[in-house]
Amino acid sequence: MIKLTAIIPTKNEIDHIASVIASVDFADEILVIDSFSTDGTFEKAQSLATKVLQREFDFYGVQKNYAISQAKHEWILLLDADERVTRT
């Protein structure tokens, strides 16, 4: 079976982090790449995600490509903290 890594880039997303992680609970790995949040996002993500990394934000593409390079699985689902995967 194909394994999936969900990647969620964040910066001060405390209001969204729990629900976005819950929406991808089917993923084999949930990786949060945090840009040094100051609102508790990093700490909350640590209690919910498979892996949480911190990296200074420089550019969206660079940040996301870095996260992809840290993913455990070849298949990647990339979504922002204000997005949700819904089941129908």
Q: Would you give an account of this structure?
A:
- By secondary structure, this protein is α/β, with parallel strands linked by helices.
- It is 30% helix and 24% strand.
- The chain has a single domain (4-78), classed as Rossmann fold, CATH 3.40.50.
- The longest helix has 11 residues, at 60-70.
- The chain starts with a strand and ends in a 10-residue tail after the last strand.
- The model has no long low-confidence stretch (mean pLDDT 97).
Core attributes:
four-stranded parallel beta sheet; alpha/beta; Rossmann fold
CATH-derived architecture: 3-Layer(aba) Sandwich
Arrangement of strands in the largest sheet: 3-2-1-4
- Strand percentage lies at 15-25%
Instruction: Enumerate how many helices there are, as a single number.
Output: 3
CATH class: Alpha Beta
Please describe the biggest sheet, giving its number of strands, its sense, and whether it closes into a barrel: 4 strands, parallel
At CATH level 3, the topology is: Rossmann fold
Average pLDDT number: 97
Rg from alpha-carbon coordinates: 12 Å
Helix content: 25-40%
